[in-house]
Amino acid sequence: QEKINHFRNQHKINVYGTDIPDPVESFQQLCDEHVFSSKIIENISESGYKAPTPIQMQAVPVMLAGRDIMACAPTGSGKTAAFLLPILHQLKGPRKLGFRALVLAPTRELAQQTYRECLRLSEGLGFRVHIIEKAETARKKFGRKTSQKFDILITTPNRLVYLIQQEPPVISLKNIEWLVIDESDKLFEEGKLGFREQLGAIYKACDGPSVRRAMFSATFAHDVEEWCKLHLDNVVQVYIGARNS
Ligand code: ADP
Ligand code: ADP
Ligand code: MG
Q1: Which residues have CB under 8 Å from 226's CB, separation 6+?
Q2: Are 171 and 138 in contact (CB under 8 A)?
Q3: Would the CA dihedral through 31, 112, 231, 144 be positive or negative?
Q4: Which residues have their alpha-adjacent CB atom under 5 A from ion ligand 3?
Q5: Residue 192 C-alpha to ligand 3 middle, in angstroms?
Q6: CA–CA separation, 11 vs 25, rounded Å?
Q7: Atom nearest to 55 CA in ligand 1
Q8: Which pLDDT does position 99 carry in this prediction?
Q9: Ligand 2, residues 104, 115, 156, 162: which to mutate, most atoms within 8 A of Cβ?
């Protein structure tokens, strides 16, 4: 335990919560201890990632343990892979259950970037990864009459809310296992109250038996923490660097 604490200090990993999983030091450790598929490890190294960043060291094992997480780490510190990798591992492979993972991003540009990173990290695993374009296209692609052969959805919240509020809903979120809210501080910013309502609607629609949630942001925001304490289950908080930086 002292070794773990020393390791966390070394990498400026601060954690709060109970029964927090140990951080990993290398990607190989994910392979050895968490039986990551060699394909994922290959995709990581194809991306040029040699060692996990501090947020990846700690957030990946937390999510692999199926724990709700609130994570804060500076911009450019690899938060995208920190949530995508455990999700790719846990979804195992493609299914016909409709979307099982949902990533919300505050802007379409960010959704696009995350989508590209997801394609890269999931190459060869067979997952169907999608972003939402037009509402009508979405109905044809994801509606109830389709085969439901899709796994991961990356989108801005507003268009998703529109689709789930159709009667019948164009997209079902009842099989969602992971709800990720990326740049959650932005989604909660002052003057963007719309986002909070949208989030509420989406959160409610993810009503499957085993939904876990992950909030990622670059800065600590009290509003996000409040929301997490209210809505998340036995949350693990992970901060890289000082909590208020
Ligand atoms: P954040 O979301 O924290 O701002 P990103 O996930 O966008 O950061 O990652 C920033 C950059 O770092 C991206 O170009 C990404 O490909 C790269 N990156 C992510 N993880 C690693 C890693 N383990 N090693 C090297 N580069 C990485
Ligand atoms: P976001 O902010 O999430 O990118 P948009 O503001 O583009 O979302 O709107 C969401 C999408 O949902 C739009 O592209 C549009 O196709 C559809 N949409 C939203 N509201 C309506 C509406 N009232 N009637 C028809 N389509 C709508
Ligand atoms: Mg990011």
Answers
A1: none
A2: yes
A3: negative
A4: 79
A5: 19
A6: 10
A7: 3
A8: 97
A9: 162
Backbone CA torsion sign across 90, 25, 4, 183: negative
For residue 168, say if its preceding peptide bond is cis, omega within 30 degrees of 0: yes
| Ligand 2 atom with minimal separation from the 108 CA | 4
d(CA 33, CA 23): 11
220 CA distance to ligand 2 middle (Å): 30
The residue whose two tokens read 């997480």 is: 69
CB 57 within 8 A of CB 13: yes
Q: What is the mean pLDDT of each run of 10 residues along the chain (245 residues)?
A: 95 97 96 91 97 98 97 97 98 96 96 98 98 89 92 96 94 96 85 80 92 94 87 94 67
Residue 18 tokens read as 């109970």
| Whole-complex ipTM | 0.88
Q: How many CA atoms lie within 13 A of 145 on its CB side?
A: 3
Of how many residues is the chain composed? 245
Verify whether ligand 2 is closer than 6 Å to residue 108 (CB atom). Answer: yes
Q: Using most ligand atoms within 8 A of CB, pick from 40, 43, 47 the residue to mutate for ligand 1.
A: 47
Structure tokens at 29: 């450790």
Dihedral (Cα; 161, 188, 104, 60), 10-degree rounding: -150
Q: CA dist 237 to 102, 158, 210, Å?
A: 20, 27, 20
Phi first, then psi: what are they for 215, rounded to 5°? -115, 125
Determine the Cα–Cα distance for residues 79 and 101; give it in Å rounded to an integer. 16
Which ligand 1 atom sits nearest the alpha carbon of residue 216?
2
